[in-house]
Write a structure and sequence with these properties.
38% of the residues lie in helices and 15% in strands. The strands form two sheets. Strands 3-4-2-1-5-6 form a six-stranded mixed sheet, with helices on both faces. It has a two-stranded antiparallel sheet with strand order 7-8. The protein is elongated and about 70 Å long. The protein has helices at 22-31, 104-115, 155-169, 174-192, 199-221, 227-242, 253-256; strands spanning 14-20, 37-45, 64-66, 77-79, 95-98, 119-122, 135-139, 144-148. The protein has three domains: 14-133, Rossmann fold (3-Layer(aba) Sandwich), CATH 3.40.50; 134-171, Double Stranded RNA Binding Domain, CATH 3.30.160; 174-257, Siro heme synthase C-terminal domain-like (Orthogonal Bundle). The chain has seven helices and eight strands, in the order βαββββαβββααααα. Helix 4 (174-192) runs antiparallel to helix 5 (199-221) and helix 4 (174-192) runs parallel beside helix 6 (227-242). By secondary structure, the protein is of the alpha/beta class.
């Protein structure tokens, strides 16, 4: 059975991590950059956690610390103790994760989470995972991410594929591509409402036009597309479609509508 890969928007949402050893730190490294408010409950924590604490501070064993000046990119709360049922208000968390040694604690965290309607992931126990992290690679700095998942069956295989993707496509300017395509999409959205097409037809026209343009430019040329001139072309084609005189994209689209050709 297939899973449904989703890109969750985690900014400001509360997430609980039970256990913070080496495996737990792999979760911390993925969660904190999303801007979520991460609570860590563990008697011992990996030294790497300090990188996400204000000033690299450490929390003493047995103590509970709340980051009252929390900012995105920081841990929100740390409790240096064993997890205790009922004292974490699990229903307040968007997700619960357990990275603990094999035994009953992971199953207990999972059961308590489910009882409160909260999705849970118990590391290395696929049967107790409502979702999987998979292997994630970030291309560029603007948020382009690729997730490879085997539904928990073969994590090392997904890691190999992730590494291959990063190696194959490292030379492309992903930030430039993302920036130009975002700008073109926004311009086309604004222009489609001015062309005189009915709303549903305007949406269909815009999506089909963007698909044809990006297919034509491909990964090799998207970083050089001339957004202003392409937006002008979109406006002309949308107006023509509204007037009942649809036009096809020019055959020399890529050679003409790149910045190098202006």
């Amino acid at each position: 059975m297939l899973s449904l890969p989703l890109a969750h928007q985690m900014g400001g949402r509360h997430v609980l991590l039970v256990g913070c050893g080496a495996v737990g730190m792999t979760r911390v490294d993925k969660l904190v950059p999303t801007g979520c408010k991460l609570t860590v409950v563990a008697p011992e924590v990996d030294a790497g956690l300090a990188a996400y604490m204000p000033g690299g501070m450490e929390v003493a064993a047995g103590a509970t610390w709340v980051n009252k000046g929390w900012e995105p990119g920081q841990v929100y709360r740390v409790a240096r103790r064993e997890f205790a049922a009922g004292d974490e208000g699990l229903e307040a968390f968007a997700f619960v994760l357990a990275c603990v040694p094999a035994g009953g604690l992971g199953a207990r965290v999972h059961a308590l989470s489910h009882a409160r309607g909260v999705q849970c992931n118990v590391a290395d126990v696929p049967a107790l995972c409502d979702f999987y992290f998979g292997s994630q690679c970030a291309l560029g700095e603007r948020g382009l991410q690729v997730l490879v998942s085997s539904n928990g069956a073969a994590p090392r295989l997904t890691a190999l594929l992730r590494a291959d993707i990063e190696r194959r496509y490292a030379a492309l300017d992903w930030d430039e591509m993302c920036g130009r395509l975002r700008a073109l999409r926004e311009r086309a959205r604004a222009l489609s409402t001015q062309a005189g097409l009915p709303a549903e037809e305007a949406l269909r026209f815009r999506m089909d036009w963007m698909r044809q343009v990006t297919d034509a430019f491909g990964l090799e040329h998207c970083a050089a597309m001339d957004v202003e001139r392409l937006a002008g072309l979109f406006g002309e084609m949308a107006a023509a479609a509204a007037a009942g005189r649809p036009r096809a994209l020019p055959a020399d689209l890529v050679s003409v509508y790149t910045e190098s050709s202006t």
